[in-house]
Structures are given as C-alpha cells and as structure tokens.
Amino acid sequence: MTVIPIKTHRELLDSREPGQGMPGDLFGRQDVFETDMDVFFHKRWILVAVTADVPEPGDVYAIDIGKASVLIVRDDDENIRAFRNVCRHRGSRLVKNAGKVSVGMLVCPYHQWTYDLDGSLRHATHMGKEFDKDCKSLIPVHVKVVGAHVFVCLADEAPEDIAKLEAAMTPRFAPHEMQRTKIAYEMDIVENGNWKLVMENNRECYHCGGTHPELTQSFLAHDFGFCPDGQSEESLADYEQYLANNAARKEEWEKDGYICELVESLDESVETNFRSQRLVIAGAGESQTMDTKVASTKLLGNLQRRDLGDVHMWGHHSWTHVMSDHAVIAYAIPLAPDKTRVRTIWLVNEDAVEGVDYDLKKLTEVWIATTTQDAELVGNTHSGTQDPGYVPGPYSKYTEDALEQFARWYDARIKASGV
User: Fold this and answer.
1) Is the predicted pLDDT of residue 215 greater than 80, yes or no?
2) d(CA 94, CA 117)
3) What sign has the CA pseudo-torsion 12, 15, 18, 24?
4) How far apart are CA 270 and CA 358, in angstroms?
5) What PROSITE patterns has UniProt attached to this entry (predicted)?
6) Region 373-398: what's the mean pLDDT?
7) Are the beta carbons of 325 and 175 closer than 8 angstroms?
8) What average pLDDT is seen over the chain?
9) What whole-number distance in Å separates Cα of residue 150 and Cα of residue 139?
10) Which of 64, 111, 238, 259 has an alpha carbon within 20 to 30 A of 308's alpha carbon?
C-alpha cells in the first residue's frame, strides 16, 4: 500500500502556482486552521466591535476569538479599553457569554473578585494582608479606535503599521462622525466555509452580476472589472466614458474636501493589510439601497450632501461601506476550518428615529440579501475545494487580481511566522 506523505503548511504554500487559487488543504485542515488563528487573529490587528457596541460608561462587549476572549469596555471617562476576559484569580471568564452587557464594575462570577472599568482590582476578600491587589489588574489588550471601528491585537507587541491605516482612514471617516452613530440592525451568520474563502469572495465582484441582483443596483457594471480582449468598439468607448465619469465625480468631491485617492497596503511586506477608495454609486448615486437613494434622511454627522459615494475599506478579515446616510461594517471570525462567523452591523446617525428618519427594510435589504447569497457561495466553494478532484484554477487578472495579492500576503505572513 502506497502512503502519500502529508504536505506541511509551507509545502502547501509552495505548491500554489502564481496566479492560481490555493490548494484545498489550506482551507480544510485543522492544523492549518490553528496556525491561521495564531498568525492572523492573535498576532495581527483585528476588527472586533464598533464604538456603538459600548455607547455608555459601563457597557461591555465580549467577543471570542478562538480560545481567547476579549472584553471591550467603555470606562467612566468614556474611553474604550480592552482586556482579556480572564479573572486574575483562577481564570474564570468574567463575562460568560459573548455579546453585550452593562455593568457598574466587572465581577467574577466564581469568587467575586471585582474590577473597576479601568481594569484595576477593587475587591478580593480573604486574601490576607500580604496580598497586593495592584499586581492583579486585568490583562490589557492593545486597542485602537478608527472612526467607529474598534481594533484589537492580542500579541504582546502589536504591529506598528496600524498607524498607516489610522492616518489614511481618520480623515476619510471624519465628515461622517462615525462615533456619533447607533446600531440600527445587526446580523450574525455562520458561513460553512473557511475564512480565506469568505475573504476571497468579498475581494472580487466577478461573481456579482450573476448572484447579487440587489447589490448591483448601486454598483457600476465596470466596477466588477473589465477585460478589453475581444470587446467591440462600442464597449471600449463605453469603458472610457466610465473612467472619465468616475474621474470627474472624484475631482468634484476632492474640491469639496472629500478624500478620494486610492490607498492600499497589500504587499507581502506589510503586517496590517488594508485598502480604501471612494466608489461612485450608480443610479441616484446616494446609497446602497434598491433605489440607490438614501435610506435615512438624517445623514451621518452634519453632512448636507447625499451623493458622496461609498467610502469602502477592507482589511484581512473585514469590510466597510460608509455612505452619506449609513454605514455597513462586517467582519469574519473563524470558528473551525469550515465554519466562519460573519457579523454585519448597520450604523445610522445616533439621533435618527426608525420609522421617522429611516425605514429599516430599505436600510438593510441589500446587504441582508448579499450576505445570505455570499454564505451560500462560500459554502458551495468550500465543499468543492475538499473534493478529491479539486485542482486550483487561474485567477482572472482583470477581476480577481486582489485575490492573488491576498494569497501572496497570506503566504508571506505564514512563512515570516516560522511555520
């Protein structure tokens, strides 16, 4: 009987041909999943919450990331802090279930050790006079707030290049005053696929025309990519007009102080992978809705213009769309090689009133439909990659170049970790 040796993680990476998809074992194996969790979710900056998850002092949002659990806390001075969800006594979870709670202090349910919202230990009975409670504060986690996004890093030393993301995105988000928002709706879905397939699906719109009829109401057809080979003169002229119209709109926005310049940090050398641009919205040009008009008449911040396009940002496990009237923020947290939690959040002006300023169905229907459709696409693709007959195929250089960039970055980060 011939025994086929199992390839190592590095050998799997090296077996990928440039310009082609990843081997199926990179999506399905438990050892690869565990390495991914360590490298991409415990040592990189990751998006775990929005500021509206903890709007008031004493609000706590707990999130599980593999074996780790993190508390996002709004303290008494209204600062956002992050701590390990581990009591300094014998390790009990302080908050037992993921999600939101409101507390005066953080009290361990086991022996009632009690912590202030700044993480300091306030009470620990029966520990004796030699016990120094100042040495038993909660373990802090690196935290960075950019716009409404709450990023954390679980590593002892966090990658410093988050500063590039912060410098790029702070002025882009500033007109929208994203910390003056509230959650109008949120959706949690578990997709039956590997987190890398979730992100590959998000980073290309090659599939959009045939699978996302709701989303494509607000997307320009050429945003999906364009291959000039074999196109008619009319099609080529139409594409040139698309480029000219985009350039004119962005020049107008820039004159009014709205940043449009593409910024990206995607190559193999970076730690913090992100990209942002301001996209032109089709139709009425206002928002990602079925009629492409705003879903909320109370715009974000003090904006007066409705036609400000879509400030789009992606990270290595998240994506964001910010329009004049609302924002959609989503992130993926791996649960298993074939299970990924995707949380999607819809933000509106903190003063907007449902049924008065916005219609919830109009606000959410595009991305509820799109997320549900994507879950099916990811599950179907994951299943196919685990078939013994699967052979990785080529990426389209016109519509899937971002997938090749992601694959190269993934390869480089894994190998830099020493795997």
Assistant:
1) yes
2) 12
3) negative
4) 40
5) RIESKE (PS51296)
6) 97
7) no
8) 95
9) 18
10) 238
In whole angstroms, what is the distance from residue 244 CA to residue 8 CA?
A: 49
Of all residues in the chain, what percent carry a pLDDT higher than 70?
99
Average pLDDT, integer, range 230-242: 86
Q: What is the pLDDT of residues 249-281, one digit of tens each?
A: 999 999 999 999 999 999 999 999 999 999 999
Q: Starting at the edge strand that comes first in sequence, how are the strands of the sheet with 310-315 ordered?
A: 181-191, 339-349, 326-336, 318-322, 310-315, 274-279, 263-265
pLDDT of residue 331: 98
Dig out the tokens for 337 from the structure.
Answer: 């090689």
User: In CATH, what number does 161-416 get?
Assistant: 3.90.380.10
Please state the rounded mean pLDDT for residues 294-301: 98
Q: Report the DSSP beta bridge partners of residue 315.
A: 274
Type of residue found at 65 = I
**Does 296 have pLDDT greater than 60?**
yes
Q: State the Cα torsion 37-41-42-48 to the nearest 10°.
A: -140
Task: Provide mean pLDDT across the span 350-361.
Answer: 98
Tokens, residue 168: 């790029």
Q: 101 has which bridge partners?
A: 60
**The CATH number of the domain covering residues in 46-146:** 2.102.10.10
Residues in contact with 350: Cβ distance below 8 Å, sequence separation at least 6, in sequence order: 52, 180, 181, 182
At residue 3, the pLDDT reads 53
262 exposed, middle or buried (CB, 10 Å; 0-12, 13-18, 19+)? Answer: exposed
Determine phi and psi for 68, rounding to 5 degrees. -85, 155
Q: CATH 2.102.10.10 in the chain, residues?
A: 46-146
Structure tokens at 383: 């299943």
The pLDDT of residue 118 is above 90: yes
